Model the fold of this input.
Amino acid sequence: MKVIDLINKSDRTLFSFELLPPLRGHNINSIYRTIDPLLEFKPSFINVTYHQEEVVYKKHENGLLEKKTVRKRPGTVAISAAIKYKYPDVEVVPHIICGGFTKEETEYALIDFHYLGIDNILALRGDAPKNQRTFTPEKNGHAYANTLVAQITDMNRGKYLDDELQNTFSTNFCVGVAGYPEKHIESPNLAYDMKYLKAKIDAGAEYIITQMFFDNRKYFDFVEGCRKEGITVPIIPGLKPICTAREINVLPQIFNIDIPDELVKKVMGCKNNEEAFKVGIEWGIKQSEELIKFGVPVVHYFSVGISENIRQIAKSVF
Ligand code: FAD
Done:
């Protein structure tokens, strides 16, 4: 079922989470180990992230550096198919990104998802790969997520890149996109960012999943701003429980987010990461309870390979 239909037919807040494919060389069982403890809370959908190739430099004994392109977390398509067939009661939402894809390659990936019976997609631009300062699209690739969404919408209307194709089938994708309550890191301001968020909705996206935030006020203000901008689709809050004390400094740098003082003090007061992990759970419960009271359609958790914290939060609020 499409995510938008799950939301529309539900009279309560739904539970969902995001998974990262395992690092190259690891086994899919780590994915199942993350999912299995969360099944009792009846997740409505599970997202699977997509990771672009990275350029790495390998140092040889003679001191020379070899430039190599690697994908550290391959397997989004296969993992999505495995989840779909292993857990038939849960929808799977693979991510698809602009980075590293030509429009033709995007079309092939979408055809694969369609053949696999996967009807949900989260469409993203992707970040600049490590070692690159700015995002560079492929030649004949998408520079921004709004045109990626438009390509998927075209396929939903039976329009493929080769307009000489005849009697084409129409895909049936429900497309979600990313939104940033504290603005995207590259945006000069929130209003600018919102204008392009609206462009993604106008191109056919049916819901938004937000970047993580630790202060619900940021989400409430964002929803209000979106509604003023004429964005009427469901806005799903994305939450990431703090796992380690180090994240207090690292997450703001990576994701352009603020961590409230109260949370900073709590985490800084922890003697070790076990205590910080517990603080992350308590904060996650508090945030989730308030969001559910507000009437959010879904609370979506970013798992980064750990499910125990999400399990404890879900046990308390779902
Ligand atoms: P866009 O919507 O394209 O926006 C990127 C920037 O360009 C913004 O600053 C925007 O304001 C601006 N902009 C947008 N359109 C235009 C335009 N037409 N003209 C000029 N400026 C424009 N990354 C991954 O690599 N893999 C993942 O699986 C992944 N999953 C994610 C899941 C969620 C829920 C979120 C919130 C993010 C995820 N990301 C993922 C990160 C995301 O790819 C990055 O944040 C990326 O930098 C922006 O992606 P976007 O789709 O929001 O880009």
